[in-house]
Amino acid sequence: MADRESTQRERQGIVVSDKMEKTIVVQVMSVKPHPLYKKIVRRTGRLKAHDEQNEAHVGDQVLVRECRPLSKSKSWRLVQVLQRAE
């Protein structure tokens, strides 16, 4: 089981939608240099994550971990709410 823990990716992001039942949409940002021009490029992506207790709300900063596919578009789980929205 310890090997499986190391292969699961974790991402930090901000909740942009909590309208679905037991599902949140998390916006994550990645920053990396362009391969040719070396300019820093920021990319944002949206992940659907499973939130069993409906504890995360819009604006919260959360930590999500990759898991097995739970539905067609949901393969992440909420690990914890890092910071509540004000």
Characterize the structure shown.
This protein is mostly beta strands. The protein has one domain: OB fold (Dihydrolipoamide Acetyltransferase, E2P) (Beta Barrel). It is 7% helix and 53% strand. It contains one helix and five strands; from the N terminus they run αβββββ. A five-stranded mixed beta barrel has the order 1-2-3-5-4. The longest helix is centred in the N-terminal third of the chain and has 6 residues. The protein is globular and about 45 Å long. The chain starts with a helix and ends with a strand.
List keywords for this structure.
five-stranded mixed β-barrel; OB fold (Dihydrolipoamide Acetyltransferase, E2P); globular; 86 residues
Briefly, what is this?
The protein is mainly beta and 86 residues long.
Question: How is the secondary structure organized here?
Answer:
Layout: H1 2-7, E1 10-17, E2 23-33, E3 40-50, E4 61-66, E5 74-83
Parallel strand pairs: 3-5
Antiparallel strand pairs: 1-2, 1-4, 2-3, 4-5
Q: Averaged pLDDT, please?
A: 94
Strand order of the largest sheet: 1-2-3-5-4
End-to-end Cα distance:
38 Å
CATH superfamily: Nucleic acid-binding proteins
Which stretches of 5+ consecutive residues score pLDDT under 50?
none
- Please bin the fraction of helical residues: under 10%
Structural class: mainly beta
CATH architecture annotation name: Beta Barrel
Number of domains: 1
The CATH class: Mainly Beta
Q: What's the total helix number?
A: 1
Radius of gyration: 14 Å
